[in-house]
Amino acid sequence: MALRIKLKKSLVGRKDSHIATAYSLGLKKIGSETIQPDNAATRGKINCISYLVEVTEH
Description:
This protein is an alpha+beta fold and about 60 residues long. It has a single domain, classed as CATH 3.30.1390.20. The chain has helices at about 15-25, 40-50; strands at about 1-5, 35, 55. Strands 2-1-3 form a three-stranded antiparallel beta sheet, with no helix packed on it. It is globular, with a radius of gyration of 10 Å. The mean pLDDT is about 95.
C-alpha cells in the first residue's frame, strides 16, 4: 500500500524542522504531490506536518 501526499499550505514562516520534514517527503511547493510507502517512518513524518498536508491512500 502507498500514500499520496499533497502539500496544501505554504512552508513560509514554518519551523525549520517542519520544512525539512516536508522536503524529505519530496514536497516543495503548494500543490506538489508525492507517493510514499505506507510505513511507520512515513506516518511519523506525516504526523509532524499533518496541518500542512492532505493524505490519501493510493
